[in-house]
Amino acid sequence: MFTVHRKEIEWGGRKLVLETGKIARQANGAVLVTYGDTTVLCTAVAAKAPKPGVDFFPLTVNYQEKAFAAGKIPGGFFKREGRPTEKETLVSRLIDRPIRPLFADGFRNETQVVCTVLSHDLENDPDIVAMVGASAALTISGIPFLGPIGAARVGYKNGQYVLNPTMDEVEDSDLDLVVAGTVEGVLMVESEAKELTEEVMLGAVMFGHTNFQPVINMIIDLAEEAAKEPWDLPEPAYDRKALKARLRETVGSDVEAAYTETVKQSRYEKVGAAKAKALETLAEEFDAQSIGFEFKELEADILRGAVLKTGRRIDGRDTKTVRPIVSEVGVLPRAHGSALFTRGETQALVVTTLGTSQDEQIIDALEGEYREHFMLHYNFPPYSVGEAGRMGSPGRREIGHGKLAWRAIHPLLPKKEDFPYTLRVVSEVTESNGSSSMATVCGTSLSLMDAGAPLARPVAGIAMGLIKEDHGFAVLSDILGDEDHLGDMDFKVAGTEVGVTALQMDIKITSITEEIMKIALGQAKDGRLHILGEMSKALTGAREGVNENAPRITVINIPKEKIRDVIGSGGKVIREIVEQTGAKIDIDDDGTVKVSAVDQKKSDAAIEWIKGIVAEPEMNVVYTGKVVKVVDFGAFVNFLGSRDGLVHISELAQQRVGKVSDVVSQGDSVKVKVIGFDDRGKVKLSMKQVDQATGEDLTKKAE
After folding, report:
1. Nearest of 219, 179, 221, 211 to residue 44 by alpha carbon
2. Considering Cα of 166, then 112, then 508, then 484, what sign does the dihedral take?
3. What is the DSSP string of 628-671?
4. Per the annotation, does 490 bind a ligand?
5. What is the pLDDT of residue 103?
């Protein structure tokens, strides 16, 4: 019934298995990939024909994690998987980025790649497994995919690179880098690093590239046995050479003039006018879709040719110069920390909010539930590019850019025990013309320092571009939006003056060489150091103390056996403290208590209350207490929080007392002295001995 094809190799100390022919046989390509005990089913399906009028490649990648893969039942009311998690979105992008450039030119059929995690051993992250599976499924599908690609994770510990470190090993590594590419070169890099040098980062990329070559060979071996017949690509419905010539003749000079305009909106208006002219003039000879596609190619030729020929770019800069920078902090009066970072026509308003551990994000992952105390959210409203558009929940791009900035900042954050705040940073991109994610990195660094978060060092980021032709190439620093769209590379590098903290690279051609990456990293370092210098004009380090609008967190420690007393039955005591003082209180299992309030008086009141609860009464010490019960033989007084002691009738006053109620009433505030403990540990108190010490006569208030 099944014709199963199976390949396996030893890779990174574990067995990697590819299998096809048994599951999902109606898909164009389906491969079950197992690494360790992590298993992912990857499928690829494409429509037989493109939809009319489609002038782009409609590729969708969906990575999905099933709870049953880790032996879990989903939470929530419906008990089933819902909207994609942040990780699912990020891994979907991770798979999409290296495969997208490898589909044949002119292929416009709707294509979908689905990677489903079926088993997770909690050691091997499914993301690499899914990337390998997606490559294999496309390679055997017959769809015009010019792969395969390979992928690997690289760690770095004790000066040594580690191939495909386990999830626990990544926690102790100085590097978490994912690299993907072909036999010829690298296509995609995503990483977080602990201030590593450019040389170490480049070495990690090449280490990964070398070590995923056996995976590429394995996929080729599988395809030789199991691949379907390759699809025939339809010939263009028009004479491309003739259309290119007519476009150059009709609007070539107009487009060249447009790309000498340094202001983005003015440039776009002139380009739009040239395109409208081309559509009108050539409408009888060619269809609008063909004209639009070739017009984009004309734009690319003109921009790229000018850079390679003259070394000058759209806005007049050379290849290494960074646009003018203005950094401002404290721009919002009520925010805990804020910064406005402007670089050319790209601008980010970045705001930091400090919270308590009650504000931590609870993440329910396949690996288990954990809490995140640093959140970075990136928003890209349509007005930032002068457009009117849909406003809604963040898309894949927003989530991806936010995570890149998160990775850049994360290695420099103070330890939680040193700075016990939950940090939420929001970047509102208010203008965009290239590299808003790197503007977010710069703005986040300034905003956190403005809030008083003690970053180890400021962090900056820069986006690099590439123009590569047969006769040469040029690496561009701090790219514009047009240089990104019409260029061959988007290479983002973030870090400090010490080293790199995040590196992300996307290649739009088949691959790039080690030489180009080395030049790009060196040029990026120069640009990053320049940007850090410009940022230092606003703020050189974290402010002393947190912003006056932020909560003050005071940490105290109490004995573990006293935690129950502070919380009280059903949380009664801690709720009363919070309600009465207005402070927030968090208690850890080890007895660490964090008390927070914007008003220090509220915090002090709560701390005193807690100290009173956990303190032990000391002999001959005078305390202030409250009469909670009056009986014939004395009065019970509450002191030190919830502790009660008895003032015997003989210890109420200097003179003989006939009735206890003649001296005190329930609710009275009194001073009492500890004079002893009975056999059961109950406290004996005296008001009389306080009178002797102070010379005061405590009598009933009613008198």
Report:
1. 219
2. negative
3. EEEETTEEEEEETTTEEEEEEGGGS-SS--S-GGGT--TT-EEE
4. yes
5. 94
Q: How far is CA 93 from the centre of its chain?
A: 14
Please tell me the CATH superfamily of domain 5-226, with its number.
GHMP Kinase, N-terminal domain (3.30.230.70)
Q: What share of the chain is helix, strand, coil (3-state, %, to 5)?
A: 35, 30, 35
User: How many other C-beta atoms lie within 10 A of the C-beta of residue 568?
Assistant: 15
The rounded distance, in Å, linking the Cα atoms of 157 and 502 is 17
Q: What is the pLDDT of residues 322-339, one digit of tens each?
A: 999 999 999 999 999 999
- What dotted CATH number matches 552-614? 3.30.1370.10
Handedness of CA 8, 10, 11, 15 (dihedral sign): positive
The verdict on whether residue 484 carries a ligand-binding annotation is yes
pLDDT in tens, 280-294: 888 888 888 888 888
Q: The CATH number of 621-686 is which of 1.10.10.10, 2.70.210.12, 2.40.50.140, 3.40.50.970?
A: 2.40.50.140
* Distance between CA atoms of residues 104 and 108, nearest Å: 9
For residue 537, which of 463, 458, 433 has the smallest C-alpha distance? 458
pTM: predicted TM-score of the whole model, two decimal places: 0.86
Could you tell me the sign of the dihedral formed by the alpha carbons of 90, 92, 97, 98, in that order? positive
* Alpha carbon distance 460, 377 (integer Å): 17
Beta-bridge mates of residue 431: 347
